[in-house]
Design goal:
The chain is mostly beta strands. It has two helices and twelve strands. The longest helix is centred in the middle third of the chain and has 6 residues. It is globular, with a radius of gyration of 14 Å.
């Protein structure tokens, strides 16, 4: 998240961020357009976080209700695993957001709960 936070929000040039193999216990927010988040390998890069939806509803934060939250447009996420580690059957987003044009390539998106992948753009009806 620190690498994403260092980017200017209004940047016009495409940006690629390489994520080295490792287990990352954090949530991620991509709120800038034209960002590629590229893992070193699908099984080697694991972004994990325990977050049932009811917990998020009790304590909103700026990052969002998913493990990976995408609010930028023209975003590419590749070669990584996003996992919501909660164990109940309630809503538990591993990938959440309202992007316009998102490419998800060679990724695992995992959760035990409903709405593992929840993407829509309500402003434009997508």
């Amino acid at each position: 998240q620190a690498a994403l936070d260092s980017l200017p929000v209004a940047g016009r040039e495409p940006v690629k961020i390489l994520v080295r193999n490792g287990l990352y216990y954090e949530k991620v927010l991509i709120n800038r357009d034209r960002v590629t988040l590229r893992g070193e390998s699908r099984d080697g890069v694991q972004i994990c976080y325990f977050l049932p939806r009811t917990e998020y509803d009790r304590r909103y934060d700026r990052l969002g209700p998913g493990v990976v939250n995408v609010f930028g447009n023209d975003v590419v996420i590749e070669n990584l695993t996003s996992k919501n580690t909660q164990q109940s059957r309630e809503h538990a987003f591993a990938l959440y957001g309202q992007p316009n044009r998102l490419i998800l390539d060679n990724c695992q998106v995992l959760s035990e709960g409903a709405d593992t992948v929840s993407l829509w753009n309500t402003a434009f009806g997508m």
